[in-house]
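CHAIN AND CONFORMATION:

***
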Amino acid sequence: MEEIKKIIKNIFKAMGIEALELSVKIDNSIKGKEITNISAEIDERDAKAFIGDNSEGLSALQHILRLIIFKKGPMQSFLALDINNYKEGRKNELIELAVETAKKVRRTKKAVILNPMPAYERRIIHLYLAEQPDIITESIGEEPERKIIVRLYP
């Protein structure tokens, strides 16, 4: 874990960003999977500039870190990077979007196509709406314009 922290701090340092707080937790609760959760707190101005539109900066850094950290380790591992709890807040927004979309689909009886979003955001919506027996979801299109269509179960 200390090696992971050092790698992240060096990347931030090269970008001119100081990590105010950094935590790394390994979660082995999913059978056969290891999830490395990394949480970083950085200056609010740096966070806004770094995360960017649709969390592109955050996704890119997560991908780079995964390649560096797991180059010698098991590729079944998963790495989740969050900065200033951005993803937790975004998750709550996506759940609210899912709830409102399902209500609209039920009310109008018409399918709704959501705006394009990254895979991890689509996954949150798919998982949340999977619990609704009268609603089905499907991802359509090609990256980076992949969208979710939400409709009533036939």
Observations:
- The beta strands are 19-27, 35-42, 78-83, 112-113, 135-140, 147-152.
- The first helix runs from residue 2 to 14.
